[in-house]
Design a protein that fits this description.
Structural class of chain A: mainly alpha
Number of helices of chain A: 8
Strand content of chain A: 5-15%
Strand order of the largest sheet of chain A: 1-2
CATH class of the largest domain in chain A: Mainly Alpha
Largest sheet of chain A: 2 strands, antiparallel
Helix content of chain A: 55-70%
CATH topology of the largest domain in chain A: Arc Repressor Mutant, subunit A
Largest interface: A-B, 88 and 88 residues
Mean pLDDT of chain A: 84
Distance between the termini of chain A: 35 Å
Oligomer: homodimer
CATH superfamily of the largest domain in chain A: Winged helix-like DNA-binding domain superfamily/Winged helix DNA-binding domain
CATH architecture of the largest domain in chain A: Orthogonal Bundle
Low-confidence stretches of chain A: none
Chain lengths: 188, 188
DNA sequence: GGCAGACGGTTAGGCGCCTAACGACAATTG
DNA sequence: CAATTGTCGTTAGGCGCCTAACCGTCTGCC
């Protein structure tokens, strides 16, 4: 998350006070929200710092992981097109173009034209790309394990359930936004 | 989070399988990590979309909120300098310069030179800035309340505790990174 | 067969964020 | 009082990400 969050989250009393002026403010919901974004950002930066040591950004890492195989090389050699990579990593095709440019310049991936469909291009890991992944991944996994090291297995399970609930809620957003836009349009 | 996350998180069986090849991979830790980043990103985007309707980005919003008062206007009129804003919002001073530029162009904040110390500049909300906040905040609060609406009070409490634990762990990161860099330096 | 439309990848332009470096000023020191 | 050191805000340059628009290519339908 390229983000930006209030460094010192507001104390709960401050939320309670603000709630008196803004009846829409739900103190406990706000607290969860702020902590969620803040923690996500913090976790993000932990891995970001590590990846940076290998000149890899999260964007580039996402591309490499997508090429590495979604469920760990389902078909062994699975070259993907930029559109497919964009789909799997959740960025736009335009962004993938830039990321692949950088990775290709670094020698970690290679573009090869598709024989059947001349619109398409295949992107595949090079040996250097596999090598850098082999170098990065163990430490990357250790980072995640260390970060969650204070949580017991049952805590982790509960954590994932809570996150999943919120994620499901957020996924309904398009509907809410559509309604909102409709309301906004009606107001004009 | 400017981010980028695997759109479809890997299934747990895939993590188990990958763990066989990479002993450092802790499946449950990885699962929590991925869900955390993904959910944080999703929540981030929910508010991002709403703010965008008012031509406000998260960066700009952070500046406005910082000016609005950390614990909701502690001293009523509290003009801040860019350095202070950067400190509170967690971005660099250079970034604040750009954000304030944009906000000033939009008429939401105003810069005034400091009388005592001529290095310093004060940034304060204008009336238009307060107005746009008054327009945005109610809906913003509603978004957060809606997003957490599926969670009970006790779930929220547990959630915050889990997030806090991970955040505390992440805060230890500088130490770990320092050690790592020392190791890397020793290797050369 | 021919043409409209859909789809692939890229380009152009913009914003947020960063680091590194600058010029102006203030505070500290000999 | 002069020189160093530190701080403040800004600038310059880079990357990731976006949207909008662009070409080249394939495809479906008549």
């Amino acid at each position: 998350m390229p983000l930006l969050m209030l460094k010192d989250l507001p104390r709960y009393e401050c939320l309670l006070e603000a709630a008196r002026e803004y009846p829409d403010l739900d103190p406990s919901a706000t607290e969860v929200f702020l902590n969620l974004l803040r923690t996500g950002d913090e976790a993000f930066r932990v891995t970001e710092d590590h990846l940076a040591q290998h000149d890899i950004t999260h964007g580039r890492f996402g591309v490499l992981m997508a090429l590495w195989g979604n469920c760990h090389r389902e078909g062994r050699e699975t070259p993907l097109g930029p559109a497919e990579i964009a789909e799997r990593t959740g960025v736009t095709r335009a962004t993938v173009t830039g990321l692949v440019d950088t990775l290709e310049r670094a020698g970690f991936v290679a573009r090869t034209p598709h024989s059947d469909d001349r619109r398409m291009t295949s992107v595949a890991l090079t040996l250097a790309g596999e090598a850098v992944l082999a170098k990065i991944l163990p430490e990357h996994f250790r980072q995640m394990a260390w970060l969650m090291g204070t949580l017991t297995e049952s805590e982790r399970k509960a954590f994932v359930q809570l996150l999943t609930k919120v994620m499901a809620r957020a996924a309904e957003r398009p509907v809410a936004v559509a309604e909102e836009l409709a309301v906004a349009a009606a107001r004009v």
